[in-house]
Amino acid sequence: MSQELRELYQEIIIDHNRNPRNHHAMEDASSQANGFNPLCGDKLTVYLKTEGDRVTDISFVGCGCAISQASASLMTDTLKGKTIQEVRETFERFHTMLTADTNEPLPTLDKLTVLAGVRAYPARVKCATLAWHTLDAALKKEPVVVSTE
Ligand code: ZN
Fold first, then answer.
1. Using an 8 Å Cβ cutoff, are 17 and 70 in contact?
2. Contact status, residue 135 vs residue 33, Cβ threshold 8 Å
3. How far is the CA of 63 from the centre of ligand 1 (A)?
4. Gap from CA of 134 to ligand 1 centroid (Å)
5. pLDDT range class, residue 1, cuts 50, 70, 90
6. How far apart are the two ends of the chain, measured CA to CA in Å?
7. Whole-prediction pTM
């Protein structure tokens, strides 16, 4: 990745951290789940509204490091309107992007690609995936608090 691209990606992460998208509680959510990353102290609640097999609305509240908040913001921005099948496929590709060998070419993930740099920092991968694991719990309607540990 070129230096220029890296800086651009950082700008986007900083922007999503400062002005998170879909950052609010949802009173009429179909389901919700709480996530906690004890390594960093990141906390998230993800709210989900589904109709049939489609995610019609998604939002989150939480606090934590810039990576965890930007990742949650980008996730909600990306997944709104997608089918649950598409959500699962995106999660799989996102997870591969963050855990694959750094020499491997990146999967195409549109704006989520801005978080690819995280894979060079294994401790931060949990920050970036917290929102997704929490979303997964909300989809399964698991009444537990997700912990990355
Ligand atoms: Zn974090």
1. yes
2. yes
3. 9
4. 14
5. low
6. 30
7. 0.89
Q: Which of 61, 101, 57 is nearest to 79 (CA)?
A: 57
Q: How far is the CA of 65 from the centre of ligand 1 (A)?
A: 4
pLDDT in tens, 45-96: 999 999 999 999 999 999 999 999 999 999 999 999 999 999 999 999 899 8
- pLDDT given at position 9: 84
3-state helix, strand, coil in the chain (%, to 5): 50, 20, 30
Q: What is the pLDDT of residues 16-36, one digit of tens each?
A: 999 999 999 999 999 999 999
Phi, psi of 47 (to 5 degrees): -110, 145
Identify the H or E element spanning 98: helix 84-99
Q: How far is the CA of 122 from the centre of ligand 1 (A)?
A: 11
DSSP codes, 17-63: HHS-TTBS--TT-SEEEEEEETTTTEEEEEEEEEETTEEEEEEEEEE
Residue 118 Cα, ligand 1 centroid: separation in angstroms? 11
- Residue 78 alpha carbon to ligand 1 centre in Å: 20
Which residues, chain by chain, have CB under 5 Å from ion ligand 1? 40, 42, 65, 68, 127
